[in-house]
Amino acid sequence: MSNSYGRVSAPRRGNTAAAAGNRHPGAYRYNYMYESAARELSYEEEGRRNTQPRRKSRSVRSVEQPVSVSHVPALLLTGMVAFLTVSVIYYVQLMAAVATTNSNISSMQSRLKTLKTANDQHYEEINSSISLEEIKEIAINELGMKYAGAEQIVKYSSNPNDYVHQVAEVGR
What DSSP state is assigned to residue 33? Predict the structure, then answer.
């Protein structure tokens, strides 16, 4: 329907009688006038139409709805940026901890190598300071030890079912 301002308004629900005369298939929605001139409203019709409360048209409602929906992607994007920022900070902290741990491991490995070298050096000093001849003299002269005699040696025969596990070569 057309009002005095030249606007085309949507038909009221159930107003299919006006749309039935239109030849355009979708014309019942918009109630266009196909004549060359629109009818003029009388003062009474204008006053009656202006006193009715205005309803929001469907186009206004559909415009308002995306405005509230448009905040969702912005909030989602903000949340994703915050999550990525926290993730990057956490990753950098983990990498710093790994670097610190690696430096501690390398310093401990170098200290272990130094200690092993010192330990091997002390072991060689101790082995080089021991003389078997000196030990023999101290045992015989100072402690009164002597070699075993023939009467002190005992021979035994072993059972063939028994076995002996030899760890090292016996010296003579």
Answer: -
| First-last CA distance in the chain | 130
CB contact burial 59-98 (16+ within 10 A = b; e otherwise): eeeeeeeeeeeeeeeeeeeeeeeeeeeeeeeeeeeeeeee
Residue with tokens 């009818």, as numbered in its chain? 39
Burial tier of 57 (Cβ tally within 10 Å: 0-12, 13-18, 19+): exposed
User: What's phi and psi for 105, nearest 5 deg?
Assistant: -65, -45
Distance, CA of 58 to CA of 29 (rounded, Å): 12
Question: What is the C-alpha to C-alpha distance for residues 118 and 128, in angstroms, rounded to an integer?
Answer: 15
The label of the residue with tokens 């430096």 reads 103
CA 139, distance to chain mean position in Å, is 73
Q: Residue 19's pLDDT band (boundaries 50, 70, 90)? A: very low
Tell me whether residue 144 is exposed, middle or buried, using C-beta atoms within 10 angstroms of its C-beta: 0 to 12, 13 to 18, 19 or more.
Answer: exposed
- What are 53-111's pLDDT values in tens digits? 555 555 544 545 544 556 788 899 999 999 999 999 999 999 999 999 999 999 999 99
